[in-house]
Amino acid sequence: xxxxxxxxxxxxxxxxxxxxxxxxxxxxxxxxxxxxxxxxxxxxxxxxxxxxxxxxxxxxxxxxxxxxxxxxxxxxxxxxxxxxxxxxxxxxxxxxxxxxxxxxxxxxxxxxxxxxxxxxxxxxxxxxxxxxxxxxxxxxxxxxxxxx
Length: 148
Prior knowledge:
Blueprint lengths: L11 E2 L11 E9 L9 E9 L1 E6 L2 E6 L14 E4 L10 E9 L3 H4 L4 E4 L2 E4 L12 E2 L7 E2 L1
Antiparallel strand pairs: 1-10, 2-7, 3-6, 3-8, 3-9, 4-5, 4-7, 10-11
């Protein structure tokens, strides 16, 4: 599900504006195109904050994460996700895929849900111009997969 070629045609719309995914665990995707003159250096994914943990992939490669292994679980929900993105991962002028695995540490015990507070932006350091848009989609399947 993290690679651009994954078949998600059967998935239906999902409204990120509600912030919560409705689930304690979720996998999310958004496809996006970059302009042909996209910058070659200083690229970051600014994913805002998430509740609680995440792994972010661009075109199938992990670019950053906040997990119980690398961050204090008590404050993970408030950690802003700004992940550097190697320019070799991106396809200027072509199709790209952002995939996010989310989970809430209290999903099993308290029934708490995951959320992305965003905004989700791919740009250069200091530049808050978003380089992608998309419609949000999800599938009713046992893996709780979502697609934007």
